[in-house]
Amino acid sequence: MKFDTNKTALLIVDLQNDNLIKGGKFEDSGAVEHARKQNVVENIKAIAERAREVGIPVFHNHFVVEKGAKGIGNRAPIFRAIAETGSIVRGTWGAAPVEGVKPKEGDFVIEKSRMSAFNGTQLDSLLRGLGIETLIVTGVWTNMAVEHTCRDGADYGYNVVIATDGTSTISEEWQEAALNYAMNNLATKMTTAKIISNM
């Protein structure tokens, strides 16, 4: 698959300190270790740098809550976990983008308070305004935010591509479950190297 740079965008989902950096609120979940194993930060950095070189727009989607996690609800276990850990609170180190993959001039930054990058955001409107047909999805968590986003992307009519080593979660078991079940029917699976070579 050769990407049409005029019709392709890169999306980086939830690449924030609390989610995958040592000292973050979810460090004990296994997320730090799995992100390191996947080399996810360096891989996403490489994809983003190449995307900018060839004129592919780069979107950063950050999950941000207000102090006390007001407004996200507590019925779903994931939202309870966010509230109980006090993670990804606006203005904190934990909510900040990971070093090395911070937004650069010309990038798009979108905030959300749900799993999918499409839910309650301007993402779809911006992509359509740019004439985007293919969306390359990277980030964390593969089996939650990334999968939700890929599902919605497919439903909205985009050709979704998921970076198999540009995504991470809490374990290889969860990673493989997301990639080898849902993604088979929703997205094209490609490695970082393959994505870059086809840009």
- SSE string: EHHHEHEHEHEHEH
The largest sheet has its strands arranged as: 3-2-1-4-5-6
Q: Tell me the fraction of residues in β-strands, as a range.
A: 15-25%
Tell me the number of strands. Answer: 6
How would you describe the shape?
A: globular
Write down the CATH class: Alpha Beta
CATH architectural grouping? 3-Layer(aba) Sandwich
Structural class, please? alpha/beta
**What is the total number of structural domains?**
1
Radius of gyration: 15 Å
- In percent, how helical is the residue content? 25-40%
Query: What is the H level of CATH, i.e. the homologous superfamily?
Result: Isochorismatase-like
Count the DSSP helices: 8
Description:
Helix 6 runs parallel beside helix 7. The relative contact order is 0.21. The model has no long low-confidence stretch (mean pLDDT 96). Strand 5, helix 7 (172-180) and strand 6 (187-190) form a beta-alpha-beta unit. The protein has 199 residues and is an alpha/beta fold. The chain is globular, with a radius of gyration of 15 Å. The chain has a single domain (8-197), classed as 3-Layer(aba) Sandwich (Rossmann fold). A six-stranded parallel sheet has the order 3-2-1-4-5-6, sandwiched between helices. The chain has helices at residues 17-20, 31-38, 40-54, 77-85, 123-129, 142-155, 172-180, 192-197; strands spanning 8-13, 58-63, 108-112, 134-140, 159-168, 187-190.
